[in-house]
Amino acid sequence: MKRIIYLLALISTSAFAQEHQKDVVTVSANYNFSEPTQYGVSLEFTKEARVDERLTSRLFNVSYGQLEYDNKYLKSTGEGFVIELGSRTYFKKGVREGFYGENFITHGQIKFDEMINGENFEGKYTFWSIFNPNIGYKIQLTKNLSLDPSVGFNWKWEVRGKGGIDNRHFDNFVFKAGAKIGYTF
User: Fold this and answer.
1) Residues 96-153 pLDDT 10s
2) What is the secondary structure of 110-169 as a DSSP string?
3) 129, 130, 135, 140 alpha-carbon torsion, rounded to 10°
């Protein structure tokens, strides 16, 4: 009888035991083809969670941005920065790979300073976005190395252009596609 009670206690204990995923950080080189085009570094912070839960991550991206300004009279390429803060949720429970959805709060500032036809053209384009969703698929190439393609769009709220920049020449709603190659610690 003691053995039966002992076995039942062991079985019931194992039924309530939950396996946890540990906290991890993934550092990635990222590229986004959009308006503006971005080259940068991405940090993904994933918190500990149970195996039967969808994993969520916090993301921080810092990128160098390039944007082409083209009106009927001139064409110029500006350079600046884009900063993104967001979250990601993996669709499959308990794993940090496969399909995911993410959204970012974004701020970008691109400066133009170029000599065109002997005259100095300068200005600044600034935007914010709180609606910047992506859908992607994270592929674990090795235990620590991952490839992360994604597609999405960005709805930009533009700040009035400065200098020779007129916001009419930029789209507020832009599609984007990108990829990240990351290493997980």
Assistant:
1) 999 999 999 999 999 999 988 888 999 999 999 999 999 999 999 999 999 999 999 9
2) EEEEEEETTEEEEEEEEEEEEE-EEEEEEEESSSSEEEEEEEEEEEEEEEEEEET--GGG
3) 90
The 8-class DSSP code of residue 49 comes to E
How far CA 173 is from CA of 36, 120, 122, 155, in Å, comes to 12, 30, 24, 5
Q: What confidence tens digit (pLDDT) does each residue in 59-96 have?
A: 999 999 999 998 888 889 999 999 999 999 999 998 99
Q: Which two tokens stand for residue 72?
A: 């009927």
CATH number of 20-184: 2.40.160.20
Q: Is the peptide bond before 133 cis (omega within 30 degrees of 0)?
A: no
| Structural domain boundaries in the chain | 20-184
